[in-house]
């Protein structure tokens, strides 16, 4: 294992944070064009399940490296967001938004398509493999050339530069209370499906453009943008990127983390990056559904929340999800599903403000448009 430190732009005098990346397997710098996977945890810094899964991966990858089983470089960033990790106010951890300017840590990643296109134009040939290698180099160069003016932008730039040339990029998150689920781009679903099987994902939510440019899309989207721009050149979908939601924020224990790390190792083995027998592929728990079909259950007014539906419940239109109750008047609003599907995530706070999302149901029919991710 090789450890690299990547200093972030210092935000204020006397502070200096680093991203630490752990590199396993063949050194990509010595074997240019070799295969690479990238895994990061807790980009939303108050989502700790990924931190423990990364710990398990660190142990397992170290063993596999010592046994000579790694056929690709695997880069692990166990702590993707040291800025958010340090944001505590009155004993509450604020890890989703940067306190200085209120930005979500998983939005607004740089769009590299134009910069990469300028670098590869006139150089793309008829060989898909050579084109992929050319594009990977251009992706890393373009990410490294992004002008970051503050600490948050340098965090985004650093993470994207580390991931830019990976063919598999896994971003480990969690929800408030949730079943295992994942978000990925529609064009790459076929290659993500085995991961959903190994992880036991209860929902797989697909969208090509979810809005606001989260990390996973920044890794994968350039490839199909280039395909559209250079339709006469063979260009693969060169990066399979996935946001993995490791259940709920308190679903952190050794057994779960061991299981999830094992599922990720199984997937990397299935994809040919690890020289082990390919583990048996389990069945898919639920078919993929469109992110635009995921129904957010929204509180229309403030009140105390009493759920009437449980995680994993199969909902039908009209089924009650939760009551929102005003204790002063007793006024109770029963929120009902308007679509069918599995209830895969719930809010873990039990007091709602007007407009708060309380639950999500993975419906099979797309009905939303615009920005599809929660705030
Ligand atoms: Zn998250």
Q: How are the strands ordered across the major sheet?
A: 1-2-4-3-7-11-9-10-12
Which class of secondary structure composition applies to the elements? alpha+beta
Largest sheet: 9 strands, mixed
CATH architecture name of the largest domain: 3-Layer(aba) Sandwich
**What is the number of helices?**
8
Name of the CATH first level of the largest domain: Alpha Beta
Uncertain parts: none
Assign the CATH topology of the largest domain. Answer: Aminopeptidase
- What helical percentage do the residues reach? 25-40%
Rounded average pLDDT: 96
CATH level-four homologous superfamily name of the largest domain: Zn peptidases
How many domains would you count in the coordinates? 2
Distance between the termini: 37 Å
Radius of gyration: 21 Å
How do the helices and strands follow one another from N- to C-terminus? EEEHEHEEHHHEEEHEHEHEEEEEEEEE
How would you characterize this protein structure?
It is a single chain. The chain has 375 residues and is of the alpha+beta class. The chain is 27% helix and 25% strand. The chain has 8 helices and 20 strands. It has helices at 49-66, 82-85, 113-120, 128-144, 151-163, 189-199, 215-229, 254-270, and strands at 2-7, 18-24, 36-41, 73-77, 88-89, 92-93, 168-175, 177-178, 181-184, 203-206, 240-248, 289-290, 294-298, 303-307, 314-315, 320-325, 332-336, 341-346, 351-352, 357-362. It has a 9-stranded mixed beta sheet, sandwiched between helices. Strands 8, 13, 15, 18 and 20 form a 5-stranded antiparallel beta sheet that branches. α4 runs antiparallel to α5. The longest helix is centred in the N-terminal third of the chain and has 18 residues, at 49-66. The two termini are 37 Å apart. The mean pLDDT is 96. Zinc ion binds at residues 44, 47, 106, 173.
């Amino acid at each position: 294992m090789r450890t690299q430190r990547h200093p972030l732009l210092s935000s204020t005098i006397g502070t200096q944070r680093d991203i630490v990346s752990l590199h396993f397997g063949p050194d990509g710098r010595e074997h240019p064009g070799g295969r690479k996977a990238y895994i990061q945890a807790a980009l939303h810094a108050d989502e700790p399940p990924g931190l423990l899964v990364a710990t398990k991966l660190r142990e397992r990858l170290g063993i596999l490296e010592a046994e000579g089983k790694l056929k690709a470089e695997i880069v692990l960033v166990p702590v993707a967001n040291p800025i958010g990790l340090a944001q505590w106010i009155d004993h509450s951890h604020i890890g989703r938004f940067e306190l200085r300017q209120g930005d979500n840590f998983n939005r607004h990643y740089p769009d590299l398509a134009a910069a990469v296109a300028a670098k590869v134009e006139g150089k793309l040939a008829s060989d898909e493999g050579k084109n992929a290698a050319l594009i990977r180099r251009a992706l890393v160069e373009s990410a490294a050339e992004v002008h970051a003016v503050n600490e948050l932008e340098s965090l985004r730039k650093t993470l994207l530069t580390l991931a830019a040339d990976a063919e598999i990029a896994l971003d480990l998150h969690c929800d408030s209370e949730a079943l295992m689920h994942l978000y990925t781009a529609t064009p790459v679903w076929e290659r993500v499906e085995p991961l959903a099987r190994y992880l036991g994902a209860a929902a797989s939510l697909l969208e090509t453009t979810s809005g606001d440019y989260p990390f996973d899309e920044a890794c994968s989207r350039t490839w199909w943008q280039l395909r559209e721009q250079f339709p006469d050149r063979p260009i693969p979908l060169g990066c399979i990127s996935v946001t993995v939601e490791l259940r709920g924020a308190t679903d952190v224990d050794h057994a779960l983390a061991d299981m999830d790390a094992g599922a990720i190792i199984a997937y990397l083995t299935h994809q040919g990056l690890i020289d082990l027998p390919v583990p048996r592929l389990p069945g898919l728990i639920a078919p993929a559904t469109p992110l635009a079909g995921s129904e957010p259950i929204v509180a229309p007014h403030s009140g105390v929340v009493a759920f009437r539906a449980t995680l994993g419940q199969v909902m039908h239109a009209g089924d009650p999800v939760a009551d929102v109750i005003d204790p002063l008047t007793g006024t109770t609003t029963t929120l009902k599903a308007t679509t069918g599907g599995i209830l895969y995530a719930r809010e873990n706070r039990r007091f709602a403000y007007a407009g708060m999302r309380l639950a999500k149901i993975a419906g099979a029919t797309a009905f939303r448009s615009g920005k599809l991710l929660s705030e």
